Amino acid sequence: MIKVVILGAGNVAFHLINVFSKNKDVKLLQVYNRNIQKIQYLKNDVEITNNLFHLNKTADIYIISIPDDSISEFSKQLKLPNKLVVHTSGSVAINALKSTSNKGVFYPLQSFSKNKKISFKTIPICVEAENKNDITLLEKLATVISTKCYQINSEQRKQIHLAAVFVNNFVNHLYYLGNSICEENNIPFDILHPLIKETAEKVEHLSPFKAQTGPAKRNDIKTMEKQLAMLPKNKKEIYTLLSNSILNTYGKKL
Amino acid sequence: MIKVVILGAGNVAFHLINVFSKNKDVKLLQVYNRNIQKIQYLKNDVEITNNLFHLNKTADIYIISIPDDSISEFSKQLKLPNKLVVHTSGSVAINALKSTSNKGVFYPLQSFSKNKKISFKTIPICVEAENKNDITLLEKLATVISTKCYQINSEQRKQIHLAAVFVNNFVNHLYYLGNSICEENNIPFDILHPLIKETAEKVEHLSPFKAQTGPAKRNDIKTMEKQLAMLPKNKKEIYTLLSNSILNTYGKKL
Fold it and tell me: Is there a domain that residue B254 lies in?
C-alpha cells in the first residue's frame, strides 16, 4: 500500500485523485489546495485542507500538481524531510523542486480535461528521481495505474513535452480549423471523424514520414493554389507554412 | 447486383477494387489502367485492359479513379452514352467530367495507402449526381460497402477536401515533426501514441474549441519562450504561427 498526498486541483490532479482514490494498492491520505472550494467535492471521501501546516506527514509520496510556474516557489514551503516530493509537469526539471525533501517527477504523458473520462491503463508514466529507491517507489506507483512506465530524465522529458505540443495541442488546433471550415459550409464535422481516427491510428504501424499523403506530398501545385485561394488570411498562412514544410521534407519546393 | 468498371490503379482505385471484388452485391466487371503492369496482379480475378476500345459496355457505373488533374481530359475519351460515369476526387467538381455520359461523384472520405488495410464500413461516402435515379444508384453502391453515405454537392465537397488537408495531411506532418524531436533525443515515438489517439478520440465527444489545451491556450508565455528556444528554424516558425493562431482563437496575443 503506497500512501499518497496530492497538492493541487488542476486537470492532472483531478484525474490522479480520481484514479488513486479507487485503487486498492494506493491510500490517498489527503488532498491540499489553496482554494478549498475546488476540492470540497472530495470531502466525504478523503481529508482535504488548504493549510500547509496541517499537511499529513505520514505519506510515502507527495505529488505537487499545480501550474508549472508555481512549482518552484510552492515547493520551498514544504517541510517534509526524508519524504519524496514529486511534481507532475512535462516541462519542469526535477531540480526546480526546492523542498528539503527527496525529489522526483511523476509525469503522466496525456492530455487531461476535467470533462473527459480517461483510462490510465495505457497512459505512459514518465518517472525520475535522485536515487534508486525513489525510482523503484515511483515505478511501483506508476504500475498500479498503468501498464507503461518509462524512466525519463529531465532533458528528455522537456523534449517529450515539446513533441507533445506538436502532436496534441497543435493537432487539436488543426482539428479546430477543419471544424471551422465545415461550420462555414454547413457540413457536419462528424464526417471528418473517421479520417481523424485513421490518421492517428496509421502512425502506430507506419512512420509519419511514410504515412504522409496529400497535395504537398504529391507536389500537386494546382490543387494547392486552388485551396489557398479558398482560405482567409490566417488559414492561408498556416496552409502555406505547413505545405512548404512537407515539400521540404520530401525534397521539393513550392 | 450493381455492375461496376473501375478505371485507374492509384490508392483509392486499389482499395475500391479490393472491397468491390469481395462484395456479393457488386459485380466488378473490369479494371482499366493505361499501364497494364500495375493491374497484372488482378488478372486471375477480374478482366483487365489498357485499351479504352475494349471497355466493357454493360456496367451500371464507371468509376474513374485517377489523379485529379487528368480526370477532365481522360473523361473526354469515354464513349458511354446513357451510362453513369463518376470520379472519386474530393477536390474536382462534377462538371469536370466531359464524357457524354451521365455524371456523378463517388468520394470516399478517407486517406488511403496501399500498404495499410482499411475497413470501408465506417468511411463516409460522399455522393453527387445530376439526377435522382443516379443519386439512388450511387447511394445503393455506397451502402453495400459503408454505413455512412452523404449527399454532398461539388462546392461542399471542395470544402470538405480542404478541411481534410488540415485534419489529415497537416496533422500527419505534425506527427512527423513530433517524431523527429523524439528521434533526435533517443525517445521512442511509441511513447506519444496514447496521446495521439486520445487527441483524435477526444473531438468525437468534445468540440476542438473546448478540447484545446497547452501553453498557448493557457497563455503561458514562459513555457512558449523556453520551447521556442529549443527549436530549429523550421519548427520554430511552425510553433510560432500555430501558437499565435491558438492565442487569437482564445482572444489573446503573443
Answer: no
- Residue B175 predicted with pLDDT over 90: yes
Nearest by CB: B160 against A68, A191, A216: A191
Judge if A7 and A133 occupy the same domain.
yes
The minimal CB distance from A174 to the residues B166, B179, B184 is found for B166
Average pLDDT of every residue of chain B: 95
Residues A126 and A229 placed together within one structural domain of the fold? no
Which residues have CB under 8 Å from B248's CB, separation 6+? A234
Chain B: residue whose CA lies nearest to A209: B176
Q: Enumerate the β-bridge partners of residue B175.
A: none
Task: Mention every residue, 6+ apart, whose C-beta is less than 8 A from residue B24.
Answer: none
Boundary residue ending a domain (A98, A128, A152): A152
User: Do B180 and B202 fall into the same domain?
Assistant: yes
- The tens digit of pLDDT for each residue in A126-185 reads 999 999 999 999 999 999 999 999 999 999 999 999 999 999 999 999 999 999 999 999
Chain B nearest C-alpha distance from A99 (Å): 22
| pLDDT one-digit tens code per residue, B84-139 | 999 999 989 999 999 889 999 999 999 887 777 888 999 999 999 999 999 999 99
The interface residues of chain A toward chain B in range 44-83, judged by CB-CB distance below 8 A, are 67-69
Q: What is the CATH number of the domain that holds B227?
A: 1.10.1040.20
pTM: 0.86
Which of A113, A133, A152 is the last residue before a domain boundary? A152
- Asked if residue A184 is part of any domain, the answer here is yes
The boundaries of the domain holding residue A235 are 157-249
pLDDT tens, A30-80?
A: 999 999 999 999 999 999 999 999 999 999 999 999 998 899 999 999 999
Q: Is A206 on the interface with B (CB under 8 A)?
A: yes
Q: What is the ipTM of this complex?
A: 0.87
Residue B213 lies in a domain: yes
